[in-house]
Amino acid sequence: MRTAVVTEPYKVEIKEMDKPVIGPKDVLIKVKTAGICGSDLHLFKGTHAFRKPPAVLGHEVAGEVVEIGAEVTGLAIGDRVTVEPQIGCGECEFCRRGLVNLCTNKTVPGTPKWCGTFAEYFAAREDITYKLAEGVSYEVGTLAEPLAVAVHVLRRLDLANKESIAILGSGTIGLLCLMVAKHYGFKHIIATDTVPFNLEMAKKLGAELVINPVKEDAVKLVREFTDGRGVDATIIAAGAPTIIDQASAMTCRRGEMVLVAMITQKFPVDSYSWVFNEQRISGAMTYESRDFQEAMEMINGGMDLSEFVTQRLPMEETQKGLEILDQKTENIVKIIVHP
Question: Is the pLDDT at 324 greater than 90, yes or no?
Fold first, then answer.
């Protein structure tokens, strides 16, 4: 089968590999769509924490079941599906608590134990494979994985107060957080970004106020919008050096912040603001299985994410897609590869 492999930093080659051999509890999926994620860009650039070249790209996927293992009972050949792309060790304290996202020995695609999704075929266990409802496209099904990230982010908040929320960074994850915030009933949603297209998307998807923090005083505008009080919650989905202080300054007393952006550089923060205002800040790492299940319920229930797909490429143009994402030469929300 054909695969898209990062053979060395900044180089993708189409290579032939053996089709996966499935076990008794597995299904074999003919890949219809695979999404390019920010983590794929890290692999492409050679900066990913554990996925290193040579490696097959991808973990976001949708396709058709073409083979089932002898012990598979809930899926059939011809089912249209997507996959939760993580398998915990099942033995650590986090797996026992249902926190597979925090398992330090979990298996993910694009590593020696599990081929990535930029391939003609992809194997997955039945228990992490989800059916797509009739009418849900493969492209939208591919977005279940990043949507699960957004669900996890929102579930890190105390959702008792759903009045106002600010989302700092309106890329793919920020915009999906916007969709989930709407789904959860937040009444006032504010979005920031430095890219005009992203702000246009945020406004189109339901943000009441959009702000370019390079051109405008974001804290001042948020405070004015909330009559000086600040928002109940802030999601940090971008990595500017001052963004955590900015989030604290626009969040109300006893408010909450969730950090989902993978900020790897170190910079100082004004922690006194958290203490003085009794604010809470939490991290959000991928998703729990229940988050993925909830994301699937949203998609199968009719959440329309079709506008998120901004580029469609054949697998032979995977390198082009990664270069577009890296250099931001086009307006992007999600690039989908069609093997």
Answer: yes
On the 0-12 / 13-18 / 19+ scale of CB atoms within 10 A, 227 is: exposed
Neighbours of 239 (CB within 10 A): 16
pTM above 0.90, yes or no: yes
Q: Could you tell me the domains of the chain?
A: 2-148+287-338 (3.90.180.10), 157-283 (3.40.50.720)
What distance in Å separates the CA atoms of residue 143 and residue 64, rounded to the nearest whole number? 16
Q: What is the average pLDDT score of the chain?
A: 97
Tens of pLDDT, residue by residue over 179-216, are 999 999 999 999 999 999 999 999 999 999 999 999 99
Q: Return the SS3 of 171.
A: coil
Contact 36, 112 (CB under 8 A): no
Give the model's confidence band at 49: pLDDT under 50 very low, under 70 low, under 90 confident, else very high.
Answer: confident
Contact 123, 29 (CB under 8 A): yes
d(CA 289, CA 306): 24
Half-sphere CA count of 182, side-chain side, radius 13 A: 17
Scan for tokens 């000086």, then name that residue: 228
Q: Do the Cβ atoms of 168 and 259 come closer than 8 Å? A: no
Tokens read off for 104: 């330090």
